[in-house]
Amino acid sequence: MQDERALQSRRIVLGVSGGIAAYKAVELLRLLQKEGAEVRVVMTKSATKFVSPLTFSTLSHYPVLYQMFTSPQKYEIEHISLAEFAELLLIAPATANIIGKIASGIADDLLTTTVMSVSCPIVIAPAMHSQMWNSPIVQENIKKLLNYGFHIIEPEEGELASGGVGKGRLASLDVIVDYVKDIFCQKNTLKGVRILITAGPTREYIDPVRFISNPSTGLMGFTLAEEALKRGAEVILVSGPTYLSPPKGCEFVPVCSAEEMLTAVMKHFDRVDCVIATAAVSDFAPEKKEGEKIKKSGKELVLRLIPTPDILEELGRIKGEKILVGFSAETGNVIENALKKMERKNLDLIVANQVSREGFGFGSGKLFASLIRRGETPPPLSSISKQELAKLILEEIKKLLDRREKGAN
Ligand code: C5P
User: Fold this and answer.
1) What Å distances lie between residue 186 and 12, 127, 398, CA to CA?
2) Residue 73 banded pLDDT, cuts 50, 70, 90
3) How far away, in angstroms, is 310 Cα from ligand 1 center?
4) Atom of ligand 1 nearest to the CA of 326
5) Whole-structure pTM value
């Protein structure tokens, strides 16, 4: 939910780099001001070739900063005072060049030094030719920035300055303003709340080189961790093996088997307010793990499997006032099965998730799912991105926490 006054008196530094879309930053400045924000503009040297600093300084009623070495003392003061001023740093448009410089730790002008000096959220809205955007170097740099906790507003598809069509146009200004508003609205809504998230698959080893597992990538849990951090929560992320990098700021606990996941979760359970179990925990493990690699003998091999502990069910028995959220991956009777799990595991919320639909579920960015609140009629299944779902889950958790707090008073 966005607040109309989300940007009222908010202090934003708008960084403008030298692409043709720099002219759009003029309108962006006006839109941010219309929302009540106080904006200071920093330009790169090449941006000043596209738009005159005078345009920005006239509109922002403040000198536009773009030179670092006008006087050395001033430079010292400028990037630090900008860093102190900024509650959010927005770079729009961001060229491949500025993205590359930031990703490589280069700080050779006022904008890049400011990037390194701020402790506030940094939002980057890239704009460039689609071939540049698709270049593996730019994509690698974007990944790097995401891992550092930067926000990236993906460029749009459409006509490009070169005359061609493709992905690379600066995101529409409304999208950028809404994104910025979203950050201010979410900020600190979960401050002081401790959330434990389980993610990824588990591996149940048969011998030193073979295991039972599943295709879970951990994306749902990692997305939730990132969204929870954005809202100021303390996050413990207990994850089975995955290629994803844990978001900056969380306490990351890597585990392998279901047993290890249970131990890690139990170790931290006392000190959290909420557990979100997204992990695809293996339901079975070999009764015995061989110490040496099993040699093939040409004969059949019989494995005896035993059930693993159901972590969430165990938490459901000792949950007390804590909030428990589960995921139910189903191929049929999706809602009915999820409701049964909600009861059996004593959950407050469950995501009924149809995994048999092509393009949804494991490894995909979206789910065909329904978020069910305890005691309420389940909404119908629908397509939803993992990021949107993460936001909805955290909003529900916030409501439950508020309700509990009111009940306690
Ligand atoms: O019973 P089912 O495995 O379908 O339940 C899914 C939910 O329970 C998920 O939230 C999952 O993370 C959790 N779970 C667990 N430990 C298990 C199996 C599932 O925590 N051994």
Assistant:
1) 16, 26, 11
2) very low
3) 6
4) 10
5) 0.73
**Ligand 1 atom nearest residue 279's Cα:** 12
Q: Give me ligand 1 centre to Cα 314, in Å.
A: 10
Q: Does 11-186 match 194-287+301-408 in CATH topology?
A: yes
- Report the pocket of ligand 1 as residue ranges, CB < 6 Å: 198, 258, 277-279, 281, 308-312, 326-328, 341
In the predicted structure, residue 247 carries a pLDDT above the cut 90: no
Nearest to 193, CA basis, from 407, 373, 404, 409: 404
- Domain definitions of the chain by residue range: 11-186, 194-287+301-408
Report which ligand 1 atom has the smallest distance to the Cα of 312: 20
Closest Cα to atom 9, ligand 1: which residue? 327
Predicted confidence band of residue 308 (pLDDT cuts 50, 70, 90) = very high
Looking at every residue in the chain, the average pLDDT score rounds to: 92
CATH code of domain 11-186: 3.40.50.1950
Give per-residue pLDDT as tens, 161-183.
877 889 999 999 999 999 999 88
Q: Is 333 helix (H, G, I), strand (E, B) or coil?
A: coil
List beta partners, residue 15. Answer: 42, 91
Residue that wins the pLDDT comparison between 80 and 396: 396
State the catalytic residues: 214
Helices 96-103 and 110-117, packing angle to 10 deg: 40
Question: Ligand 1 centroid vs 397 CA: distance in angstroms?
Answer: 19
CATH numeric code, 194-287+301-408: 3.40.50.10300
